[in-house]
Amino acid sequence: MSELTSIKTRVLITGGGGFLATAIIRMLAKEHPEFELFSISRNYYSHLESIEGIEGEKVSVRQIGGDISDLSFMQKIFKEYRFDVVFHVAAFASMWGPWKDFERVNILGTKNIIQVMKEFNVPKLIYTSSPSAVFGYCDLEGVDEENAPYPTKFHSYYAKSKAAAEKLVLAANDGKNLLTVALRPHLIWGPGDKHLIPRVLKMARSGRLKIVGDGKNLVDITYVDNAAYAHLLAYRALESASAPSSSKVLGRAYFIADEKPVVLWDFINKILSLNGITPLSLEKRVPFKLAYKAGAVAEFSYKYFVNGLLRIKREPPMTRYVVMMLAKSHYFNHKRSQDDFGYRPIVDHSEGLSRMI
Q: Which residues of the chain have a pLDDT value below 50?
């Protein structure tokens, strides 16, 4: 084999040790043996030392320790490795915290990635956004990307920062030298989740989990392999466009989820039952307005007293944003992702639950 043909495509995944990023890496290793995989994270992850590739071959991910908000570090890394594709998955994904933390990672980190990609001629960026970017106060019921504008007021710093970062990514697309696309997977779940389902189980076991609202709200959820698969399809759409400037995906955002929404509290009760926990009763539900006011009080007291005066770093037990996520409907029309790059979920809910258990 000649030296030219042996050169592999160098792919960078930011936050590679995280839940979704690891799923993307596993899928890339299995389906794209021509890729040399790199991860930038602040920590080292042993599970990335041996990822199963095509025909069971073991693939090692080159892990680079560092902070994406450090521009000089990013310039050094991009100069050294000369990447061909970037999957920007890393984010500060918390329901609580100071604005500077969200701004530094989610906005400045994204700005730096765009800058170094332009500086070192890296042509393709697949960005992991979130439906939170368009979630304000109202229910979102079957809306598509054209009918879900960015809200004028955000109820969480996470949502505000993800919206700002998404705008940067989409605006950076020039149809020629830098091709970008943003995906918005919603409520990612599955084996390996250390945040969403574990938090629900912890609250239920402590007796702090209550149905908020009428208990009938519909939400989109996304099994982790479905979210990863959407990222691969988006990459292939960028890669295979014969005329990039006319490609449908360029500079666009896409809602991603499983095939159909679930009644949130029915799904949560199913998770509880599978883990031997008594399902929640509608008779003990908390009205939305009461929970929303309680969230506002908790935010105020934690911001100015617990986090402020006492300097104790702790999240409030409830926030207005979490209340809305638990009580409002938020599900989306996925026709754009189906039409533009052929997205269909590859794992249904029953299979996903069996794998998780």
A: 1-5
